[in-house]
Amino acid sequence: MAFSTLTIENSPSDQPAMEKPPVSDDRSSNQDLQNGLPLGKDIQKIINTARTSPASAMGAWLMSGLTACLMWASFTPLDFGPLGWVCLIPLLLLVRIPRKTRFMYTAIYCSGLAFTLATFQWMRLGDPSMYVAWFALAIYVACYFPLFVLLTRMAVHRFRIPLPVAAPIMWVGLEYMRAYLLTGFSWYYIGHTQYRWIELIQISDITGAYGVSFLVVMLSACFADLLPASLMRQCKLFPMKLTPEEQILDQTGFKHIIQTAVCLSLFFAVLGYGYVRRAQAAFQDGPRIALIQGNFPTSVKHDPNEWRSMYLKHQILMGAAVRYQPDLIVWPETMFRWPLIESNGKTNQELQTIAPEVPLDKWSEPSVRKALTNMSQEANAALVIGLDTIAAGDTKVDHFNSAVFVRPDYGIVSRYDKIHRVPFGEYLPLRDTLPFLQYFTPYGASFGIEPGKHAAHFEYQNWTFSPIICFEDTVPHLVRSMVNHSSTADSTKKPIDCLVNLTNDGWFHGSSELDQHLITAAFRCVENRTPMVRAVNTGVSAVIDGDGMIVEPDVFVDGDNQGRTSFVNAKTGRWNKSLNAVLVDTIPLDHRTSLYTKYGDWFAGACCFCAMFVFFMALLTRTRKPVPVKS
């Protein structure tokens, strides 16, 4: 007790000789070493490292996963379009944070892959071999999500570009790239979620559908930039120790007010433009058209024993349409199963050299031409019929997916061969280089069609029609080239009055693909101010005006006698699918002009250029670590 009192009362300065170095540190250090624990001096270093290290991956998984779920719900089959305005906000929060979280890009890619797998699942319905194509496309498109975040972060944090400017430019630039790379895939653009808001999508006649995507992403980025940092902390997007840049994210300054005002002004300007353009529409009655919609799965189509029953069903449906005196009747893609044989003026000797296995009398067989001519004369209407064409080429026999134009006075007068082929469905990429790819297609080794050389214009009475086949109506630049006469060899033709789409969606068994195909096609009408009619096996056949409005036809004939009086289900509000039907309507001719038709993808191309510029400038200006100099 005396020793304790002495120790307390005497300060170290009073008893310097008696002071001893503390032994507690050495003992604890020794004890730590014996126990395998870090030294006491390392504990503070570990704490500091924890405070300055990136946030955990939990926040990135949460935000990217939320975007994937909301984005999936904004497209078909749920088709809840308003979610398109908010689905990217969680992903944009990952752009806002100055320091990326752990495994951030891994989380973004995996969430994007979950979205693409769920969204593209209809591809697997075509054939078991299409599972590979489904996964391959999903893996490819999912790459655009982390790439978008990477490019936008470069623009925001490296070059100090405001988020509401950087995000829509990068997003649209990548959508444009996706329209061209690997033959192109122009489906599921974020702007497509707004197809019901007719006034909003009118900007497409200047910028293409890309302009709608730009507007949606811009407002999403504006909202994301206004969210408080406290919310981001709750979402585990910040580490323990905040940098000065992270601490000021809560401050809403004059910059945020200005950019919000600009974004809202642009939104209302686009909306106002839409109301003005719709008011300028003075649709005039064009030709009376009948769309024949059979309901045949693809397995039936490829069975020659079923060809006659398919033909008779379409004849019955056409008979129902004739009562309404149409000027033009359209059959879906390849629903007339007997091929059109074209010798192309070759001599018998040339034909025998090109195809010795084909009897010479087959090249002059007139039965298909006679059948089509008789059908047109009996209906007293022009026909656009989807069929296969077997044509003699210079060195081999060519196979085309075609639309033939038949007039009651002249018979077959013109033919269009499909230009944009579907990989693995209509041709096999790299067949000679990678022969194993043959296992990923439902056809035999000799399958495949040749691409058409140019667009075709069908003229009847005072009208001009431009046919497009299958997924060609989803390709913006292709449809524009068909409407724009500067893109064709013959610039003396009359302006296009109507686009005629022939499609066979029987591959997909009434899935959401049918709805999304129709939605995507509607944007082609706005972009080019040209109406479109679609005759689709299994549905959805439709008439679309130059505003992108999918209109109710004058006449709907239920070919299954189920009492349906509309192509829209009265109970669900969704389009009827997987049924035999006839749609008869008068085409609303649109005489407005389109800057998009004239100038093309100038807007999306500029966005793509900016995205590539940011990427390469970031590579050129990246900080390099100094090389240590040896003494």
Search tags:
631 residues, alpha/beta, 8-stranded mixed sheet, 6-stranded mixed sheet
Description:
- The chain is of the alpha/beta class and 631 residues long.
- The chain folds into two domains: 58-280 and 605-620; 284-429 and 445-600, 4-Layer Sandwich (Nitrilase/N-carbamoyl-D-aminoacid amidohydrolase), CATH 3.60.110.
- The protein is 43% helix and 14% strand.
- The chain is built from 23 helices and 14 strands.
- Strands 1, 2, 3, 4, 5, 6, 13 and 14 form an eight-stranded mixed β-sheet that branches. Strands 7-8-9-10-11-12 form a six-stranded mixed β-sheet, covered by helices on one side.
- It starts with a helix and ends in an 11-residue tail after the last helix.
Quick structural overview:
With 631 residues, this protein is an alpha/beta fold. The protein is 43% helix and 14% strand. The radius of gyration is 32 Å and the shape is elongated.
Work out the count of structural domains: 2
Count helical runs. 23
CATH architecture of the largest domain: 4-Layer Sandwich
State the CATH topology of the largest domain. Nitrilase/N-carbamoyl-D-aminoacid amidohydrolase
Largest sheet: 8 strands, mixed
- Broad structural category: alpha/beta
As residue ranges, the low-confidence spans are 1-25
Instruction: State the total count of DSSP E strands.
Output: 14
Classified in CATH, the superfamily of the largest domain is: Carbon-nitrogen hydrolase
β-strand percent reads 5-15%
Report Rg. Answer: 32 Å
Task: Report the mean per-residue pLDDT as an integer.
Answer: 87
CATH secondary-structure class of the largest domain: Alpha Beta
- Which of globular, elongated, flat, extended, rod-shaped describes the shape? elongated
Q: What is the terminal-to-terminal distance?
A: 61 Å
The percent range for helix content is 40-55%
